[in-house]
Amino acid sequence: MMQVQPIFLKTLLAYIKSTYLPAKRHNPKYPDSFTSGDLHFFAPAVAELSAAFTSERNSRHANYFNTKEARSSYLLYFLVPNMLKVQWIFEQQHFADLFSEETEVRIADIGCGPCTGILAAAQYWQSHAPQQKLSCVAVDQNTAMLKDGRNLLNKLTEHNSKDGTTLTTHAATLAQLRKALGNNRFHILIVANVLNELRSTEERFDFVSRLMSQHLTPNGRLVIIDPALQRSTRDLMLLRDQLVTEQKVARVLAPCLHQQLCPMRIANPRDWCHSYLEWERPQVIADLDMLVGNRKEYLKMSYMVMSAVQNVPKQKIGDTWRVVSAPMKSKGKVEILFCGENGKMLRVTRLDKDRSKENSGLDQLQRGDVVRYGGDERCLPNTVVAIQIP
């Protein structure tokens, strides 16, 4: 279960309060913590930004973070969930181990807002490889958000005297990205909640393929995160097929276990491959959920981790599967969709009468899990279902 570090949450709330809450509303009895009145002050802007993030791109202003209301809302309600998504991917892909031989890990966060991915990386590396240096570049068109990110990173790292994180910020649009990044190559490129703002398939393909070819090290990883919405995720699934299967300019390492065409995209135009992560929701976000009518009980996202083609060994075909649906329970049975190393989808059905100790692992599965399963469409009493990783 993902959870935010208490020291970061405390630092974040104090920063929002000192930076964005009008001085006349400050209660001297509560200099750092949020009161009910504070939450009611921020709630309308949180509701507005939340609605904008779940709508079509053209319903939002070109630079919607120009207003302090939008910036404070993002910091208060969206920063922590989005950071935890990045950290979860880092955990799953064992990035600290992957780059353990590097003297300095270079990270670029594209369209970063308040340096969301870099804040996640700093906390992840502090937990896993605190002596390793991070050289980070943050690119966003909004200078105020970049300033917020730098301030938060400074406050985060000042708690650790041995922290070796450096940060360079560039106020630039995606069209100005080459100028911002120069000829530099990075071990990790983070592109979170950016691709859904590009208007065409061609734009998305050109952007990602150029980014990988010009700015990713041979052993590097590209992390893409988009909202778990049907249209944007279907676009991401198409992009994956173009990059990996059609043009063969990248390999996908997660969530896919294969390099074939996405079977879900082909099978049903209404399905989209996304993940739900369990998390310990901070009280401030739970309180805001009550005020704005949301239910942020899970962290939802669509994501991909990619690498250069030539630097990843070919995968062996076995009996490993990714769970790509929630369990579908109906009278007398439970069904669940698997996507396997062979590039095929499998709808596994277990009748209630077939439930056994061997196949009871099916009851524990959640969307996104990786499992060992050697059976076929019908899960029989002697079929072993083993969860491989969370």
Summary, kept brief:
This protein is of the alpha/beta class and 390 residues long. 37% of the residues lie in helices and 23% in strands. Helix 3 (68-93) packs parallel to helix 5 and helix 8 crosses helix 9 (230-246).
Give me the secondary-structure topology.
Elements: H1 6-20, H2 36-53, H3 68-93, H4 95-98, E1 104-110, H5 116-128, E2 133-140, H6 143-157, E3 165-171, H7 177-181, E4 186-192, H8 201-215, E5 216-226, H9 230-246, E6 251-254, H10 263-267, E7 275-278, H11 283-292, E8 298-307, E9 320-323, E10 328-330, E11 333-340, E12 345-351, E13 370-373, E14 385-389
Helix pairs in contact: 1-3, 2-3, 2-11, 3-5, 5-6, 8-9
Textual characterization of the structure:
The protein is built from 11 helices and 14 strands. It has 2 domains: about 5-310, Vaccinia Virus protein VP39 (Rossmann fold, 3-Layer(aba) Sandwich), CATH 3.40.50.150; about 320-390, OB fold (Dihydrolipoamide Acetyltransferase, E2P). Helix 1 runs antiparallel to helix 3 and helix 3 packs parallel to helix 5 (about 115-130). Strands 1, 2, 3, 4, 5, 6, 7 and 8 form an 8-stranded mixed sheet that branches. Strands 9, 10, 11, 12, 13 and 14 form a 6-stranded antiparallel sheet that branches. The chain has about 400 residues and is an alpha/beta fold.
Average pLDDT confidence is 91
Rg: 22 Å
Number of strands: 14
In percent, how helical is the residue content? 25-40%
